[in-house]
Design goal:
Length: 356
C-alpha cells in the first residue's frame, strides 16, 4: 500500500474552505483505492505575512520539499494590498514556484458535458466534450529576461528580453510529449517562428525532441493563429506546448472556453514527482467565509495530483467521473442554472465524496 505525504498551503480568502473539501475527497479516494495520505500544513501568502512577516517562510519551503506533492488553495486579499511588491502574498506564490523548480505549468481546459451551456462558444463548435491541455513554460522567457529603461531619440523607452536556452526548451518539450503519450498522442507547439529568433530555436529543438516520440503527431502553429483556432475549432487540439508569455495568454483564453473559473485546475511540475496543484482562480475575498465558493477546481486539482505525481490514475478518473455525475443535478451559485439544486461549498464536497 502506497503512503503519500502532502503539504497543504490553504492560503487566504476562500483557500481554507476549498482545500478542506478537496482533502475530504482525497481521503475518500484513498480509502477506496487503498492508499494512505498524511497531511502537513504550512503558511503561504497573507496568512504567512500575519504570522511571520513574510509571505514565504523558510519552513514552508522545507515542508513542501519533504513531501510528495503540494496542494494550494489561493493567496491574497485587500488586507495585504499595501504591502511592498516583494512582500505581497503573490510574491510568496512566485517564490514557492521558484524554490521547488516548477518549470512546467499544466492547465487543462475541460468542459464537463452538463456544463456546456456555461461556455461562450456555440455547442456545434465544442462538439462532444472538450479536453485540451496547455503546457506553459513557467520559469524562462521574457518574464525573467533582462529588462530596463533607456532613451531613444531623447525619449524615454523600455525594453524586455525573450531568451530561451536549448535545455529549457528540451525539458518543457519532454513534459509535453510525455503528456501527449498519455492522452491522444497529438502535440501542437505554438511559437512565432516567422518573426522571433527565440521561436526559431524553440521550433528546431521541439522537432529534435520529437524524434524520441515517434508515436506523437507533432504540428506547429504561430501564436496569432493559435489564438484564433482556439475559438474557431478547439476540437483540433490535444496538448499544446508553448513559452511563458504565449502560454500565459492562451491558457486564459482556453479557460474562458471552458466557461467557469470555479471549475479549472492546474499543476506545476518540476520534472520529478513533486508537483504543486492549485485551482486557477484567486482567493475570492468577496465570497470568503460564506460557504458559497465552488470547491470543484480544487477537487479537480487533487485528481491532477493523483494522475501526475502520485501514479494513481484510477483514483483520478474516479474523482473526475464523480464530479461529472454531481454536476448533472447539483450546482454551487457560480454555475447555478434553473432546474438544478443549489448547494454550498461543504455540501458540494460531500456530494463528490458520496458519488465516489
Ligand atoms: P479571483 O479569482 O479571486 O476572483 C474573481 C471572481 O471570481 C470573484 O468574483 C470571485 O468571487 C469569483 N470566484 C473565484 N473563485 C471562485 C470559486 N471557487 N467559486 C466561486 N466564485 C469564485 O480574482 P481576483 O478577485 O482578481 O483576486 C482576488 C485576490 O486573489 C487578489 O488578492 C489576487 O491577487 C489573488 N489571486 C491569487 C491567485 C492565486 O493564489 N493563485 C490567483 C489570482 C488572484
Amino acid at each position: 500500500m502506497a503512503d503519500y505525504k502532502i503539504t497543504l498551503l490553504k492560503g487566504d480568502g476562500i483557500g481554507p474552505e476549498i482545500v478542506n473539501q478537496a482533502v475530504k475527497v482525497l481521503d475518500k479516494a484513498a480509502e477506496k483505492f487503498d492508499f494512505t495520505v498524511e497531511y502537513d500544513e504550512a503558511l503561504l501568502g497573507g496568512c504567512a505575512i500575519d504570522a511571520t512577516g513574510v509571505p514565504l517562510p523558510d519552513e514552508t519551503v522545507a515542508k513542501c520539499k519533504a513531501s510528495d506533492s503540494v496542494l494550494l488553495g489561493a493567496v491574497g486579499g485587500p488586507k495585504w494590498d499595501n504591502q511592498p511588491g516583494n512582500n505581497r502574498p503573490e510574491a510568496g506564490l512566485l517564490g514557492i514556484r521558484g524554490a521547488l523548480g516548477l518549470f512546467a505549468n499544466l492547465r487543462p481546459s475541460v468542459i464537463f458535458g452538463p456544463l456546456k451551456s456555461a461556455s461562450p462558444i456555440k455547442d456545434e463548435i465544442i462538439g462532444g466534450n472538450l479536453d485540451i491541455m496547455i503546457v506553459r513554460e513557467l520559469t524562462g522567457g521574457i518574464y525573467f529576461g533582462k529588462k530596463g529603461r533607456t532613451e531613444v531619440d531623447g525619449n524615454p523607452a523600455a525594453w524586455d528580453t525573450e531568451m530561451y536556452s536549448v535545455p529549457e526548451v528540451e525539458r518543457i518539450a519532454r513534459v509535453a510529449f510525455d503528456l501527449a503519450m498519455k492522452r491522444n498522442k497529438k502535440l501542437t507547439s505554438v511559437d512565432k517562428a516567422n518573426v522571433l529568433e527565440s521561436s526559431r530555436l524553440w521550433r528546431e529543438t521541439v522537432i529534435r525532441i520529437s524524434e524520441e516520440y515517434p508515436e506523437v503527431e507533432l504540428n506547429h502553429m504561430y501564436v496569432d493563429n493559435a489564438a484564433m483556432q482556439l475559438v474557431r475549432n478547439p476540437q483540433q487540439f490535444d496538448v499544446i506546448v508553448t513559452s511563458n508569455i504565449f502560454g500565459d495568454i492562451l491558457s486564459d483564453e482556453a479557460s474562458m472556453i471552458a466557461g467557469s473559473i470555479g471549475m479549472l485546475a492546474s499543476a506545476s511540475l518540476s520534472g520529478g514527482k513533486l508537483g504543486l496543484y492549485e485551482p486557477i482562480h484567486g482567493s475570492a475575498p468577496d465570497i470568503a467565509g460564506q460557504n458559497i465558493a465552488n470547491p470543484l477546481a480544487t477537487i479537480l486539482s487533487v485528481s491532477m495530483m493523483l494522475r501526475y505525481s502520485l501514479s494513481q490514475p484510477q483514483a483520478a478518473d474516479a474523482i473526475e467521473n464523480a464530479v461529472a455525475k454531481v454536476l448533472e443535478t447539483h450546482r454551487t451559485p457560480d454555475i447555478y442554472e434553473d432546474g438544478f439544486t443549489k448547494v454550498g461549498t461543504e455540501e458540494m464536497g460531500d456530494l463528490v465524496c458520496a458519488a465516489l
